[in-house]
Design goal:
Elements lengths: L9 H12 L5 H8 L7 H14 L2 E6 L2 E6 L3 H17 L3 H10 L5 H14 L1
Antiparallel strand pairs: 1-2
Length: 124
């Protein structure tokens, strides 16, 4: 059975970044790490976490006085899903079209082109 790919909303990514950095975290730890940037209230963090649990993005375990939250998906899986989504939406699923566009618009440096070349050679 193919694993369902989750596309994170920007607000969900803020929370996931904190959980990927260090887990488990309580709601208060997450709140304190986000209160200045992006400036959310505790109730906003709580609402987002509840929705993320429902979506299967995070899970929690009861611990002492507070729930301990964990990421349910890896950073790599989220990045791959978002990259696939971008390719499909913007480039009709074509990696070649994306790279060609970037090169034609001089959006890639010589070093980046060389890095891509080395990656492709390694995977050959």
């Amino acid at each position: 059975m193919k694993k369902k790919e989750i596309i994170l909303q920007q607000s969900e990514r803020y929370i996931m970044e904190k959980l990927w950095e260090n887990n488990p975290r309580t709601i208060m730890q997450i709140y304190h790490s986000l209160e200045l940037n992006p400036g959310w209230s505790k109730s906003t963090v709580n609402t987002l976490l509840s929705r993320m649990v429902e979506k299967g993005i995070v899970y929690y375990e009861e611990g002492g006085k507070a729930r301990q939250y964990y990421p349910a998906i890896s950073r790599e899986d989220a990045d791959v899903a978002e990259t696939r989504n971008l390719l499909q939406r913007v480039y009709r699923g074509s990696v070649g079209m994306m790279v060609n566009t970037m090169i034609k618009k001089n959006a890639l440096s010589e070093e980046e082109i060389e890095e891509l070349y080395q990656i492709l050679q390694k995977e050959k």
